[in-house]
Design a protein that fits this description.
With 345 residues, this protein is α/β, with parallel strands linked by helices. The protein has twelve helices and 13 strands. Helix 6 links the parallel strand 6 and strand 7 (198-202).
Length: 345
């Protein structure tokens, strides 16, 4: 059996409250739920390999051309397809960051160079990365970064894009959590799409569709897009995912409501964790990253609460945790439980 290396393991453990998976606490948009229920008969036929209706909806949502969009079975699927399509010899990753980049790259025998992000600097990316970009073929950059939740500063992002273009390094900007950021347009790399970069987006987090598996890629280079398309099944996006995705994008005000709710609850959790004595790092996403001097994962699991221990991230050690922002009553329960655990030693 495969070992769980990410959050969301509610199958091998008895979990009542899962704070290990970063899913929108408001749940799937109501229009998406209704669309799934009323279109069950559509699941009997093969899905549209071009995701025609969904792509048109993404065009309106992102403000880009149809030719810039490629839909897939979640953003993780695209990470592997990009690696297979481009077959880079040497890649640049930040550490810590999402582990699937390295796993996908290793499948194509790619050498990996890490740009270490340091705790004393708040795990922020700095201009020291410029020294490594020219030596690599591809750079996977996650913003907001998982597991920290911080974004790349706009002025630094602009310099990175220019440096990558100059050195011929393919920049892949993973923005799967960008829709949770309050001023997302300011931090998104989408304004640089014509520079040849690739942007990854997903319905998984913002629309709470982790089980449906739906993501997409934005790219202005038709050659790269076609190569990535050819590295996956033509039926990679199910009819259910296409129907739900199309409906989710049409729900007015859902993302704005989500941003406001997450920002409020993130502030509550941050303040409470600090009150309890934890070192909390600033986050702009729907999760919080913090450091504990004592183990809290095991005692929480004993109480059927899952949090994400981050010790298996490259660049981190035992004592770092990530928790998802959930509904207020659940967030209160988590804080109260942690407080009792600490009081009891």
């Amino acid at each position: 059996m495969a070992e769980y290396i990410h959050g969301g393991d509610i199958y091998s453990r008895e979990i009542e409250y899962d704070f290990s998976a970063n899913i929108n606490p408001l749940g799937m948009p109501e229009m998406a739920v209704r669309a799934l229920v009323s279109n069950v008969s559509a699941f009997e036929v093969y899905p549209d390999i071009n995701c025609t209706k969904l792509v048109k909806a993404i065009v309106q949502f992102e403000g880009v051309s149809e030719k810039n969009i490629l839909c897939s079975n979640g953003a993780a699927d695209l990470i592997y397809r990009i690696s297979y399509a481009l077959k880079p010899k040497k890649a640049l990753l930040t550490a810590p960051s999402f582990s699937e980049y390295a796993l996908a790259l290793k499948n194509v025998n790619c050498e990996i160079e890490y740009e270490t992000l340091f705790e004393e600097n708040g795990f922020e990316l700095t201009e020291s990365v410029f020294e490594k970009i020219p030596e690599t073929d591809i750079f996977f950059l996650c913003s907001p970064n998982n597991p920290v939740g911080n974004t790349v500063k706009p002025e630094l992002l602009e310099k990175i894009v220019k440096q990558c273009k100059k050195s011929g390094t393919q920049l892949v900007a993973d923005e799967c959590f960008m829709n949770f950021v309050t001023d997302s347009e300011k931090y998104s790399a989408k304004k640089y799409l014509d520079s040849g970069i690739i942007i990854l987006k997903a319905f998984t987090k913002i629309f709470a569709m982790a089980g449906l598996r739906l993501g997409y890629m934005l790219c202005s280079d038709p050659g790269i897009t076609e190569r990535v398309r050819e590295c996956g099944s033509c039926w990679s996006v199910s009819s259910a995912a296409q129907i739900a995705g199309n409906a989710a994008l049409s729900e007015k005000g859902y993302i704005e409501k989500t941003k406001a709710y997450v920002a409020s609850e993130r502030e509550y959790l941050t303040c409470e964790l600090k009150r309890l004595g934890f070192k909390v790092f600033p986050s702009e996403a729907n999760f919080i990253f913090f450091k504990s001097q004592t183990d809290i994962e095991k005692p929480l699991l004993e109480r059927k609460i899952a949090v994400r221990s981050c010790e298996n991230y490259v660049g981190l050690k035992r004592g770092f945790y990530r928790i998802a922002v959930r509904k207020h009553d659940e967030n209160q329960l988590l804080i109260n439980t942690i407080e009792r655990i600490m009081q009891n030693g």
